[in-house]
Amino acid sequence: MVAAPNWLNALSLALALPENKSQRLYQLATVDSKGLPHARTVGYVDFLEPEDSPNLPILLGMTDIRTPKVGQMRSQPYVEICWWLSGSREQFRIAGPLQVVASPNVDVDVVPKGEGTLAIDKLTRQGFDWETKRQETFERIPGPMKATWCKPQPASVIGSYDEGKTWPQTLAPVGEEQSEEERQNRETALKNFALTLIEPVEVDWVQVGTNPHRRTKFTRNGEEWLEEILVP
């Protein structure tokens, strides 16, 4: 029977520990068209997998389609995250190709090529509705956070921090908008909201809470995962 990779089991167990309860942020690294690296902290959303294929997990995230990192993903759609869980003192570095699921009203083409998209392609062939998933994920976000998707373009220059006080502070749940302005803000935010799909093909797991420290590398070969024990 096909099973989830050992690194995902380890990560799931680590996230379930009380001491890691608040550890839901990780660093995402991208490379721009000039070969320069860029890193930022993003929030964990979930893992997806094709039906009957727990061995092919996909890391689900979210972003604003207008951010500089989306352009970087377009020029180099291979990324790596670094997830440090301070409670259990474990680090997971997860690398692989990335795709962006944007609104149908946005023209974005961030499509990695080759075998690296095995899981994403398989889920798509099974009829997975990415647009429904995008909207469902958006609806689960708290109102104040939703509002960040209808502010001016991220990384654009502003005159002062006071300008932020004029931006929408929250968005009402769907169907509960009280004005045309609120409806337009919601429409803008949903248009700018996008999912990121990282398909892990290499994982480096370091445990420094053990003595001696441990390090294990996982490499996907087709639909199988190879494991190697490394010097920490």
From TrEMBL:
<dbReference type="GO" id="GO:0010181">
    <property type="term" value="F:FMN binding"/>
</dbReference>
<dbReference type="InterPro" id="IPR012349">
    <property type="entry name" value="Split_barrel_FMN-bd"/>
</dbReference>
<dbReference type="InterPro" id="IPR024624">
    <property type="entry name" value="Pyridox_Oxase_Alr4036_FMN-bd"/>
</dbReference>
<feature type="domain" description="Pyridoxamine 5'-phosphate oxidase Alr4036 family FMN-binding">
    <location>
        <begin position="5"/>
        <end position="101"/>
    </location>
</feature>
<dbReference type="Pfam" id="PF12766">
    <property type="entry name" value="Pyridox_oxase_2"/>
</dbReference>
<protein>
    <recommendedName>
        <fullName>Pyridoxamine 5'-phosphate oxidase Alr4036 family FMN-binding domain-containing protein</fullName>
    </recommendedName>
</protein>
